[in-house]
From TrEMBL, chain B:
Belongs to the ABC transporter superfamily. It comes from the Archaea. PROSITE patterns: ABC_TRANSPORTER_1, ABC_TRANSPORTER_2. GO terms for molecular function: ATP binding; ATP hydrolysis activity. Keywords: ATP-binding, Nucleotide-binding, Transport. This is ATP-binding cassette domain-containing protein. InterPro entries: AAA+_ATPase (IPR003593), ABC_transporter-like_ATP-bd (IPR003439), ABC_transporter-like_CS (IPR017871), ABC_transporter_ATP-binding (IPR050763), DrrA1/2-like_C (IPR025302), P-loop_NTPase (IPR027417). Residues 4-234 form the ABC transporter domain. The keyword Endoplasmic reticulum does not apply. Coiled coil: none annotated.
């Protein structure tokens, strides 16, 4: 467990270096919700669409940033750090756990200003809402980071990873309820949409932060979203651990 | 007592064996030099011992732990300085070395003192707060080896530890490797620098094309070359095959190697007695001698003899 904690600490120390990047991302987000979100909510006739949109755009950005930050393992591989990490006195499970949780916390650190803005705009800044939002976001980010790290370490190709995660990003965000409600989707989109972690995060956050919006746009019980996110993060970790113990080794990066 | 036992270990990349049925052992508390030309399989061997890559077949034991079955326990015993320094460009030397020390179990004052001492001896203390990308190649290498000196592992692996390092730095690193051994660590040194291997290794294994071709102490290796004397002759012409064949036929000549600049290198028994016969054969071909020298074999010669390549 010690090794995992050191890796988490290392990820967090890296985040401190990117204050400008965090500020820049927050500015983009603020412009997005102030301009695009406001205009969209005047066009779309669904009640309280702006509240619906705020949570959705935050969820999709957390997804994109989790992928982006976990992707750093490719850059580290170019610097030879992947082999260094594999030689350190820790189990592979510690490596997967440390990197997944470390990248997830970093992703949260990048998006906390955005989340606070969302809470402010929704008028729902309470310790309870903050805690539940962070908890569900962390579970989601751990799952995404675990999958990205495992996949990238297995295929060891920036080209293949770029193509796959470009496609995954395009499909997952669009086949989710981040931007449009389940009730507006054709029935054949609903099953893949419900099985989508972005949907589960977005709907749980809506349930916590804007229950009115949740109740008329989604059909599943909110407890299922939490169960999904817990199962998602644990599954990603277990798969990562198995793959790292059996398949992943140093060298061979393309 | 053997601390490291390598048992018929093999690693294939695709259809090509990088290491092929390698077996040898390293005694506890010795510096073992693994010598070989580029591509001989040294780094692949090291990475298998460090559990960074998995053997295709065979295995190795370090401190009694199997690298395939008990990799976590193996990693708790070893520290490795890689051939290429490992760091992101925006890390600082002090952060790199301290973080490594901490993850290997060092704490507080002991960690701080050890880091300072090692970095001062390697002359990188003044550069501790620079970014990694601002360091010269030699100083990056010093940061890489500093991690292992701070860690003081039971089994220390150095992959070309003095590449790009200046002469003073080389001697500092060699002294520190010897001190590490004297403090109880077992050391494996992979290098293609025969001088380095000769100076600090207790025993040396020579690898070529994925296999171990010779093993022994530096003096044993030097004595092992058939034809204890080496006669180097530079001619005014490029020696042709027939000349080489006729020289090889002289009784007492065990091998004739053609090297650069019209140079013949002959491995002889009773060299001083054979010189007249050698000169007579050369004169038959109308060649003139520009330079001739008889010498005892160096580790360079051993390396050249077993690998057929320049070290």
């Amino acid at each position: 467990m010690r090794g995992a904690l050191f890796l988490i600490g290392r990820e967090l120390s890296k985040t401190r270096r990117y204050k400008f990047f965090i500020a820049m991302r927050f500015t983009w987000f603020a412009i997005q919700v102030a301009v695009f979100g406001a205009v969209m909510s005047r066009i779309v006739t669904i009640p309280k669409f702006y509240e619906f949109y705020l949570v959705g755009v935050y969820s999709s950005i957390l997804f994109t940033l989790s992928v982006f930050i976990s992707y750093e393992i490719l850059e580290e591989a170019e610097d030879g750090l992947f082999e260094y990490f594999l030689s350190l006195p820790m189990g592979r499970w510690e490596f997967v756990l440390g990197r997944s949780v470390g990248c997830a916390i970093s992703s949260l650190a990048y998006t906390i200003p955005m989340l606070l803005l969302v809470l402010l705009l929704l008028g729902n800044i309470t310790p309870f809402s903050i805690a539940l939002s962070l908890f569900s976001s962390l579970l989601f980010a751990i799952g995404i980071s675990g999958i990205v790290i495992t996949f990238v370490s297995l295929v060891k190709s920036s080209d293949v990873s770029d193509i796959v995660f470009g496609a995954v990003d395009a499909i997952l965000v669009r086949l989710s309820t981040a931007m449009y409600p389940l009730s507006a989707m054709p029935s054949y989109y609903r099953i893949p949409s419900v099985a989508n972690p972005i949907t589960q995060l977005a709907e749980f956050l809506r349930y916590v932060l804007s229950p009115d919006v949740f109740s008329y746009t989604y059909f599943e019980p909110p407890g299922s979203a939490v169960a999904f996110l817990i199962g998602f993060s644990i599954s990603a970790f277990m798969i990562g651990m198995l793959v790292f113990e059996r398949k992943v080794e140093g060298g061979g990066w393309r | 007592m053997a601390f490291v036992e390598i048992m018929n270990i093999t690693k294939y990349y695709g259809r090509n064996p990088a290491v092929n049925g390698l077996s040898f052992s390293i005694e506890e508390g010795e510096i073992f030099g693994l010598l070989g030309p580029n591509g001989a399989g040294k780094t692949t061997t090291i990475l298998m011992l460090a559990t960074v890559i998995k053997p295709t077949s065979g295995t190795a034991k370090i401190g009694g732990y199997d690298v395939v079955k008990e990799p976590d326990k193996v990693r708790s015993l070893l520290g490795i300085a890689f051939q290429e320094p490992k760091s992101t460009w925006v890390d600082k030397p002090i952060e790199i070395v301290e973080w490594h020390g901490r993850i290997c179990g060092l704490r507080g004052q002991e960690l701080k003192e050890r880091v300072k001492e090692v970095m001062e001896r390697l002359e990188i203390w003044d550069q501790r707060n620079k970014f990694f990308y601002q360091l010269s190649g030699g100083n990056r290498k010093r940061v890489e080896v500093a991690k292992v000196f701070v860690q003081k592992p039971k089994f220390a692996i150095f992959d070309e530890p003095t590449a790009q390092v200046d002469v003073l730095g080389k001697h500092a690193i060699w002294d520190m490797i010897k001190e590490l051994r004297d403090s109880g660590s077992t050391v494996m040194l992979a290098t293609n620098d025969t001088n380095e291997a000769d100076i600090i290794s207790d025993r040396i294994g020579i690898m070529h094309e994925g296999k171990l071709v010779s093993l022994g102490t530096p003096s044993e290796l030097k004595d092992s070359i058939p034809g204890g004397d080496i006669l180097e002759i530079q001619l005014n012409i490029t020696p042709h095959d027939e000349m080489v064949r006729q020289l090889s036929d002289i009784e007492g000549v065990s091998r004739v190697v053609l090297s650069e600049q019209n140079m013949l290198r002959m491995y002889l028994n009773r060299g001083e007695e054979l010189v007249p016969a050698v000169l007579e054969r050369i004169s038959r071909f109308g060649a003139k001698i520009r330079y001739i020298k008889m010498k005892e074999p160096s580790l360079d010669d051993v390396f050249l003899y077993f690998t057929g390549e320049r070290g």
